[in-house]
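STRUCTURE:
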């Protein structure tokens, strides 16, 4: 049996923690979605998602992260549910304000209360998520093709560095596990490597973009070429301590310290695109994406393009 749901009929939860642009974004979201509700300051990804579920009065709800601004047209879309997807979580792509990448990181998502409340919690005593990426591989967690929002991660130097650092770590992993250097070349999917290279090189045309690049390179270096515990990427307190070690340096110097080893040991390109080159790349890349419909899965488009 097919069921059509107007997204505007679902509760919208704005989930914030410590984003420096959260208050500004909250005003924009409330103007766009007057029925939106806010959950703030809950430590740990699983705990925050559960708080969002409890704040919703509808069984299925839309979740917007604190550094994300939806496209207003998203709330005119409809979900078409049937027996194959009725219980699924949907996450749509977001545009990255620094490097223009469009993928699920930070994008709008749509959850069921049941899914959230039954999620396996993997949090240490300090509230950090040890395996927060696990639900991304859940069969009922669907990555969708279309892009319906922009994630603004560069309001401050620390926000930009942290966003880059976290992706610099996560893009190296193979289903949440750190590969060794040899495995990195074979097991990490090419799409992730391509995105990782964009994090490493694109964004000098926007404020704090250099810090985003520095963070991404630093995250990759520490994950793949040192003994640092990569699971600490989910612990924001630990990331603040790392930030203290570099914040008084120029971001280009931070980037330059590790660029040679990233290139020689991991075969990652260090292109160092400047402002005009970064802008050109993003303008060109943006034209390659077209929305196909809110219920189109990313994997189905990939299969069609690659002839699976």
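SEQUENCE:
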């Amino acid at each position: 049996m097919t069921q059509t749901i107007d997204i505007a009929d679902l509760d919208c939860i704005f989930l914030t923690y410590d984003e420096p642009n959260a208050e500004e974004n909250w005003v924009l979201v409330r103007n766009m979605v007057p029925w939106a509700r806010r959950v703030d300051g809950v430590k740990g990804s699983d705990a925050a998602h559960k708080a969002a579920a409890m704040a919703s009065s509808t069984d299925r709800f839309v979740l917007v992260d604190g550094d994300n601004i939806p496209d207003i047209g998203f709330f005119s879309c409809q979900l078409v549910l049937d027996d194959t997807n009725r219980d699924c979580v949907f996450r749509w792509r977001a545009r990255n304000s620094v490097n223009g990448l469009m993928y699920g990181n930070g994008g709008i998502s749509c959850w069921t209360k049941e899914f959230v409340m039954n999620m396996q919690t993997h949090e240490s005593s300090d509230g950090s998520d040890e395996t927060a990426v696990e639900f991304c591989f859940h069969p009922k967690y669907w990555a969708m093709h279309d892009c319906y929002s922009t994630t603004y991660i560069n309001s401050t130097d620390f926000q930009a560095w942290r966003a880059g650092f976290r992706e610099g770590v996560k893009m190296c992993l193979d289903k949440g596990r750190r590969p060794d250097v040899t495995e990195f070349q074979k097991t990490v999917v090419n799409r992730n490597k391509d995105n990782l290279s964009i994090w490493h090189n694109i964004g000098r045309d926007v404020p704090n973009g250099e810090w985003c690049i520095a963070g991404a390179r630093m995250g990759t270096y520490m994950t793949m070429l040192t003994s640092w515990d990569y699971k600490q990427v989910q612990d924001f307190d630990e990331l603040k301590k790392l930030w203290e070690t570099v914040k008084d340096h120029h971001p280009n110097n931070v980037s330059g310290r590790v660029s040679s080893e990233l290139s020689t040991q991991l075969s990652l390109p260090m292109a160092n695109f400047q402002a005009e080159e970064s802008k050109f790349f993003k303008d060109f890349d943006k034209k390659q994406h077209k929305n196909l419909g809110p219920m189109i899965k990313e994997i189905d488009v990939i299969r069609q393009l690659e002839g699976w």
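REMARK: The beta strands are 3-6, 11-16, 37-40, 60-65, 68-70, 78-81, 89-96, 102-103, 109-112, 141-151.
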